[in-house]
């Protein structure tokens, strides 16, 4: 019965007409995860915990090496456990759209240059200037297993401010 109601809702919203088969399957998977969470916990708010999400910060100042992956070691949120503080890498648990954000702040140096990368490919650039943060927000189409991280670019001698001024976060949209 729930499946019939679900399919009717999808058709009424027009999603079936606009989606491809794989997208429908992903949407159904998301709804099933939410339904399981509601059944288990008794409220829709609990279902939101099924959405992969993370927020991490840098607690100590850092002088990153050229091309170094930044390991944001202070984990504030890590729903699903898909961010690794030991590697600095978020691994996408499933296909879909993700909102990825990063903020960097130089410490003492004039500039700080970093990149948001997926599987070693630059997606967005960040630059912070003395006393000012650099921020990037990107909606990325990721595949299950894609590795997302913040990497120092090719410039050396730049310092990154810790004390939670520099951060990296992301969450699954759809």
Automatic annotation (TrEMBL):
UniProtKB keywords: Secreted, Signal
Domain C1q as annotated: residue spans: 47-174
GO (cellular component) term, any one: collagen trimer
InterPro entries named among the record's database cross-references: C1q_dom, Collagen/C1q_domain, Tumour_necrosis_fac-like_dom
Signal peptide annotation: 1-19
PROSITE patterns: C1Q
Protein name: C1q domain-containing protein
Organism: Mytilus galloprovincialis
